[in-house]
Amino acid sequence: MGPPGSGKGTISTRIVKDFAIKHLSSGDILRSQILNKTAAGVSAKKYIDEGTLVPDKVMVDLIIGELKPLQQNWLLDGFPRTVPQAEALYNQEPVDVVMNLNIPDEIIINRIKGRWTHAPSGRIYHTEFNPPKVPGVDDVTGEPLIQRDDDKEETVQRRLAAYWKLTKPVLDFYRDHGILMEFKGKYSNEIWPHVHKFMSTKIEPKQYTQYKGFS
Ligand code: AMP
């Protein structure tokens, strides 16, 4: 779990690189269902297009259906998003641990609001971390940079408020069940060593497994 812009994608990618665990993203699963025009895909499409949540029943059936046949560890991303989803998952495919990336809202807002885009090429700059040579201007073409609506402070603030409203009860659910693990920090690089260390107490890192195989 983690708010938009918390580095959930980065941390997930690093986890699957270092540990034998299958990464399942609910958004990706839904998009592939839509592409394949499955019954779940057809019923989910209108909600996704509207930017609202897909009904719990559709989501639960879909995700449980993906998890059931798996013979390996899994890392769920994007699910559960509501308490009924968390309850259904807990009852049908119990989770061992829920990792929450606890990044202060101000850090996320500062990181995103510094992004400037060269619309024709998609090149992205950041006023602090990767500034253009001339402020407000694309390095390659000299054309003006724009700030995408998604990267504006008001938009990020609105998205974060919606996230907390929806997600706090899910975090409380897992905290009450004693399986919520919080990782606090400002950047993925700061959080990652702690996630890696914690994951290593649950699954052997890939390298170690390979090393043992040769000994
Ligand atoms: P994402 O890629 O995680 O942002 O998901 C894209 C869209 O899929 C969301 O805006 C929702 O409409 C839908 N979605 C993904 N996961 C869930 C979920 N757990 N519950 C309900 N809808 C979801």
From TrEMBL:
Amino acids binding GTP: G5, S6, G7, K8, G9, T10, R115, I124, Y125, S188
Start and end residues of each Adenylate kinase active site lid domain: 115-150
Catalytic activity: a ribonucleoside 5'-triphosphate + AMP = a ribonucleoside 5'-diphosphate + ADP
Gene Ontology process terms (BP): ADP biosynthetic process; AMP metabolic process; GTP metabolic process; ITP metabolic process
Region (NMPbind): 25-54
A GO-annotated cellular component: mitochondrial matrix
Gene Ontology molecular-function annotations: AMP kinase activity; ATP binding; GTP binding; nucleoside triphosphate adenylate kinase activity
Cross-referenced InterPro entries: Adenyl_kin_sub (IPR006259), Adenylat/UMP-CMP_kin (IPR000850), Adenylat_kinase_CS (IPR033690), Adenylate_kinase_lid-dom (IPR007862), AK3/Ak4_mitochondrial (IPR028586), P-loop_NTPase (IPR027417)
Positions annotated to bind AMP: S26, R31, T52, L53, V54, G78, F79, P80, R81, Q85, R148, R159
Record bears the keyword Nucleotide-binding: yes
Spans annotated as LID: 114-151
Keyword Nucleotide-binding attached: yes
Entry's EC annotation: 2.7.4.10
Matching Gene3D superfamilies: P-loop containing nucleotide triphosphate hydrolases
Enzyme class (EC, first level): transferase
Stored Pfam families: ADK, ADK_lid
Compartments it resides in: Mitochondrion matrix
Subunit structure: Monomer.
Matching NCBIfam families: adk
Domain-level remarks: Consists of three domains, a large central CORE domain and two small peripheral domains, NMPbind and LID, which undergo movements during catalysis. The LID domain closes over the site of phosphoryl transfer upon GTP binding. Assembling and dissambling the active center during each catalytic cycle provides an effective means to prevent GTP hydrolysis.
Record family assignment: Belongs to the adenylate kinase family. AK3 subfamily.
Function: Involved in maintaining the homeostasis of cellular nucleotides by catalyzing the interconversion of nucleoside phosphates. Has GTP:AMP phosphotransferase and ITP:AMP phosphotransferase activities.
HAMAP family on file: Adenylate_kinase_Adk (MF_00235), Adenylate_kinase_AK3 (MF_03169)
Descriptive protein name: GTP:AMP phosphotransferase, mitochondrial
Protein source organism: Dreissena polymorpha (Zebra mussel)
